[in-house]
Design brief:
Elements (H helix, E strand, L loop, with lengths): L2 H4 L29 H15 L12 H12 L7 H5 L3 E3 L6 E12 L5 E11 L3 E3 L3 H10 L2 E2 L1 H16 L3 E10 H4 L10 E8 H4 L1 H12 L5
Parallel strand pairs: 2-5
Antiparallel strand pairs: 1-4, 2-3, 3-6, 6-7
Helix pairs in contact: 2-3, 5-6
The chain binds zinc ion.
Zinc ion binds next to loops.
C-alpha cells in the first residue's frame, strides 16, 4: 500500500448546482468554490435546520461553525503524512527484542454513522536495526484515527505504516474499541468491545512471538 499517497487524499470538491431556469435561486453558480470550512458550516446549517432547529437561537447560532471546526480537526489525519510524524525520530539501534507501547488511548469517527469510536491500541514491533522514538507511535496512530474510519482498516493501516517506516522483522497491532453507533443507537449495547488485530512478518509466522505479544498486552500493571 502506498501510505504517502493515501495520506494526502484531497477533500472532495464542492457541489455546484446548475439550473437553466433563470428564476431558480441557485447557490455557488460560477462562484469561487467555498473553502472546506465554509462549505461544512453551510452544510451544518442545513442539517440543523432540517432537524427542526431554529438556527437563529442564541445557543445554536454559531453551532454550524463549531461543528465545522470540530469535524475538520477530527478528520485532519488525512492531511498528515508519516514523514511529518516520524521527522528525524528513526534511530539505528542493535536492540532486537519486542518493543511494545500499549494502552494508547485514541478517538476516531466511524465512517458509516460519523459517530465516535474510541478505545486503546497496543502497538509492537521487532526491530531490525532501527527503532523509532516511542512518542511517535501514538502520533502515528492519530494519523489514521483522525479521519472517517472503520476499526479493521485503522488497525491494518497502523501496522502497514510502521512496517513501511522501519522495515522491522515484524509488527503487531491490536485495537480494542467501543463504538457509539452501537452504544447510542442500533443494538444499544453499552459494554461490548470490538477487538481487531493486524500481524505482519514474524508475529504472523511465529506462534511463540504472537503469544508473547498477547501476553504482554493482557498483563495488567502490577500483576
Ligand atoms: Zn458506525
Amino acid at each position: 500500500m502506498d501510505i504517502s499517497t493515501s495520506a494526502v487524499t484531497p477533500r472532495r470538491q464542492p457541489m455546484v448546482e446548475c439550473h437553466t431556469n433563470q428564476n431558480t435561486s441557485v447557490r455557488h453558480v460560477n462562484a469561487v468554490p467555498l473553502a472546506p470550512l465554509a462549505m461544512i458550516t453551510e452544510a451544518a446549517t442545513d442539517i440543523l435546520s432540517a432537524l427542526g432547529e431554529d438556527i437563529r437561537r442564541e445557543g445554536i447560532r454559531r453551532t454550524p461553525e463549531r461543528m465545522a471546526k470540530a469535524l475538520t480537526y477530527l478528520t485532519a489525519g488525512s492531511t498528515m503524512t508519516m514523514a511529518d510524524v516520524l521527522n528525524g525520530a528513526v534511530f539505528t539501534e542493535r536492540y532486537d527484542q519486542m518493543v511494545l507501547v500499549k494502552d494508547i488511548e485514541f478517538y476516531s469517527l466511524c465512517e458509516h454513522h460519523v459517530l465516535p469510536f474510541h478505545g486503546m491500541a497496543h502497538i509492537a514491533y521487532l526491530p531490525a536495526g532501527k527503532v523509532v522514538g516511542l512518542s511517535k507511535l501514538p502520533r502515528l496512530l492519530d494519523i489514521y484515527a483522525r479521519r472517517l474510519q472503520v476499526q479493521e482498516r485503522l488497525t491494518q493501516q497502523v501496522a502497514e505504516a510502521l512496517h513501511e517506516a522501519l522495515n522491522p522483522r515484524g509488527v503487531a497491532v491490536m485495537v480494542e474499541a467501543s463504538h457509539f453507533c452501537m452504544m447510542m443507537r442500533g443494538v444499544e449495547k453499552q459494554n461490548s468491545k470490538t477487538v481487531t488485530s493486524a500481524l505482519l512478518g514474524e508475529f504472523r509466522d511465529d506462534p511463540a512471538l504472537r503469544n508473547e505479544f498477547l501476553q504482554a498486552v493482557r498483563t495488567q500493571q502490577g500483576a
